[in-house]
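name: query_chain
kind: protein
chains: 1
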Amino acid sequence: MKTLVKIALTATLVSTLGTLGLSGLAIASESQDTNNVQTSQAREEGEQNEQEESQEDDAEEKQEAARLQSLAKITAQQAKQAAETAQGGTASKVELEDEDGNLVYQVVIDQTEVMVDAGNGKVLYTEQANQENEEDETNRPRSSIQVPDTDRKTNDDPGR
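structure:
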């Protein structure tokens, strides 16, 4: 009889420990699911904030582009023609920019950036793309149109 009691007690103990273990796993699993939901929600909120900031940046860029365009005296097409004639080749990109207070069209031809005066269509200077020479910046010709300094963000700004 003593053996039967021992077996019964052992079975009860194993059963109880097994149930506690399973409930512990269930609690841990539920806790992990809650953490996953919270992490997912935080990620979605971060993505939503990034989208809102991106939309605000896009709106600011469009506003700045409209402001610059209102100051320009020549079109992007005229700037492109002037750059292609001076440099030779075909332009892959034309962009109106405030370059250190100078209103210019940046025309990219191959690996060369051609800066065209947005006021009179003259080529001001050229430089190799992504290889700005800051020593030459002070000696560069100025555009015929100077952009008023209204908390300007130029392409040279590191904050941009």
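note: The chain has a mean pLDDT of 80.
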